[in-house]
Amino acid sequence: MNLAYRDIKHNLGRFLLTCLGLGLLLGVVLAMIGIYRGLVVEALTIARAPAVDLWVVEANTRGPFAQASRIPGDIREAVARIAGVSSAGSVTYQTVETEHRGGKLRLYVIGYEPTRPGGPPEIADGRAIARSHYELVADLTTGLTLGDRIRLGRNVFTVVGLASRQVSSGGDPAVYINLLDAQKLQFDLAPPAARVQLARGTAGSSRDTVNAVIAQLDPNSSADAVAETVRRWKHLAAITQEEQELILTRSLVDRARRQIGLFTSLLLVVSAVIIALIIYTMTMEKLKQIATLKLIGAPDRTIIGMIVQQALALGSIGFVIGATLIVNAKGYFPRRVVLEPDNVLILGLIVFAVCLLSSGLGVRAALRVDPATALGG
Question: Model-level pTM greater than 0.70?
């Protein structure tokens, strides 16, 4: 006879409600893990989208994402002539807030040259930019549709294509426009400011400025060797794709990673305490039955097995409920939630270990029961 099964069946409703409550708590733990993974994926999305090997930026900066960078646009031609570089393109990055359908819309605007690296990796619907001005490819999460017209700065752009999962590290959906339009949007002054600069005699600066030049290398070329060649030009810095991803994960999401990690650890501790208290309470409620088992000669391993099996059943059912809840609800989160199989497996093993440790309190109480209490009133 399986005593754990009999006991659970006797109090099935309460046991399932307890599993549901624990499942909600474990679902929050899974959600926090998925949110952290989503932050990392979003932080790397824009950097990986062009599929390049090298980033050329302003000297003494860490690239267009971690720090501000402005370099002349004609640097692209110099980079393209370096041995080992197969193609190079200029890009700009900026955050813009505009209005659409009566509401505010915050966008991450990427300017690129349509015939060079820097554009969206794939078009989910519509087409790529074909005209030299005022066309736009937007991420699906912007809520824009093909043919929509949206104002950026002083110009109106038409949505001609839709991309998928292109968001900045801050969670803002990305839109792609022609580099010339992006330079005008980012570097042109408003008319009053332009008149002031003209009056001061400082309005003649070139608008051919970009945030970075990106380069794709030949298959047999070394990114480190090409980067070292660029660094010899004292006014520029070169960052390989691997270094760029390291900067993004360590500087942009590091504090969020630590905070989410601490919060997740606290939730796991709370889960362990709750499981321990539940098992202890369930054990204390049947002390007389346990004393009876001892009185009729049941070995300690039978009693220990009952308590441990109940703890594992509680944790397993709660974990399945939490995982099912988050897997089905992750699409409704405002930021991307990424649940990878290894993360779920590791959390499952942690829950298994927590259940074993938490059952110790109930086991200790059960083993201290005097069989003589079974004969009491």
Answer: yes
Angle, CA of 219, 225 and 227, to the nearest 5°: 100
Tokens of 284: 């204390």
As a whole number of angstroms, the distance between CA 271 and CA 358 comes to 9
> Can you list the alpha helix ranges (DSSP code H) found in 167-235?
179-187, 191-200, 223-231
Nearest one of 113, 233, 219 to 176, comparing CA atoms? 113
Give residue-wise pLDDT tens across range 2-41: 666 677 777 788 888 888 988 998 898 899 888 888 888 8
Which DSSP state fits 371? Answer: G
Please count the residues of the chain: 377
Distance CA 337, CA 35 (A): 5
Q: 191-218: per-residue pLDDT in tens?
A: 665 566 666 665 555 578 999 999 999 9
Angle of helix 341-367 relative to helix 12-48, nearest 10 degrees?
150
Q: Are 127 and 161 in contact (CB under 8 A)?
A: yes
- Please state, as a whole number, how many other Cβ atoms lie within 10 Å of the Cβ of residue 132: 11
C-alpha span between 89 and 117 (Å, rounded): 5
Sign of the four-CA dihedral 244, 245, 247, 251: positive
Please answer whether residues 126 and 160 qualify as being in contact, where contact means their C-beta atoms are separated by less than 8 angstroms. yes
Q: What is the distance of C-alpha 52 from the center of its chain?
A: 22
Q: How would you classify the pairing of strands 174-178 and 103-112?
A: parallel
b/e map of 59-82 (b: 16 or more CB within 10 Å)? eebbbbbbeebebebebbebbeeb
Of 165, 177, 216, 213, nearest to 336 (Cα)? 165
Whether the Cβ atoms of residue 116 and residue 85 lie closer than 8 Å to each other? no
Give a three-class secondary structure readout of 228-255. HHHHCCCCEEEEEHHHHHHHHHHHHCHH
Task: Write down the residue that tokens 């009056």 correspond to.
Answer: 199
**In sequence order, which residues have a C-beta less than 8 Å from that of residue 159 and are 6 or more positions away?**
126, 136, 137, 138, 144, 145, 146, 147, 148, 149, 150
Q: How far apart are the first and last CA of the chain?
A: 27
The helix/strand/coil state of 99 is strand
The identity of residue 229, as a single letter, is T
